[in-house]
Amino acid sequence: MKVFKTVAEVRAARAAVGELGLAPTMGFLHAGHLSLVERARAENPTVAATIFVNPTQFGPNEDLARYPRNLPRDLALLEAAGCDLVFTPEPAEIYPSGFDTTVSVGGVTEGLEGAVRPGHFAGVATVVAKLFNIIQPTRAYFGQKDAQQSVVIRKMVRDLNMPVEVVIAPTVREPDGLALSSRNSYLTPDQRARAPALFRALSAAKTAFDAGERDAEALRAAMGRELAGFTIDYVSIADAETLRELDRIDGPALASLAACLGTTRLIDNLPLN
Ligand code: AMP
Questions:
Q1: How far, in Å, is the centroid of ligand 1 from the Cα of 215?
Q2: What pTM did the predictor assign?
Q3: pLDDT tens by residue, 176-226
Q4: Choosing from 33, 120, 139, 220, which is the catalytic residue?
């Protein structure tokens, strides 16, 4: 496995191989990230991962400074998962002085995370567009865990005719249902014990949906009931493609939520099909 810090080096290594699968990450890797690398490994002759804590997708009051990092451990995990190339640039390599371009995706960025985190998806779309241009993956792998991010990336790729196939992999969970997240490391033992309520809330909506409930407000209420004691940013039943809030479900939909436990903000979702 080769590790690169500069655009020029990773470009040269990429140019020497054929089809390539890419898993972009912010590091502090867990089994969710590794599932993307393993899927890429199964579907591509060469696999690349990026580790870059992208400053432009964090708001001024968010957790950029304390975001967890452990590069030696991440590199060992990637090597064991069969990754071939790793790009782990410093911020100045991605945003040199004078950098002044933003990729702004409309519509699907307005609600949910976009409403609570202004500028977040512009940061995400811009860095992913750059990583696609630098590494030129044949296929790029993202997690369902960040459902709105997946919709935004797919829309950017479609709207800008980017020559990459976007693959969305299922959410990897702990045995008690908590979705794996680098941010779970912030939770105190007491908060960790309460965190599976997010999955219980989504499961309650899914159970009601599977039993035939199509009234979106009834599903939101079912989710809310499981989240007593949480500070809720949103509970949502939205169209799976446009991410607009629904009154009634009559096509593919997404149940999603964001809630805080103390200072830790967690998100999760379940598709309703
Ligand atoms: P992050 O490092 O949080 O930016 O995540 C990098 C990629 O891993 C994104 O495409 C995430 O959606 C994906 N990911 C994060 N957590 C999980 C999980 N529990 N299961 C599957 N994919 C995940």
A1: 30
A2: 0.98
A3: 999 999 999 999 999 999 999 999 999 999 999 999 999 999 999 999 999
A4: 33
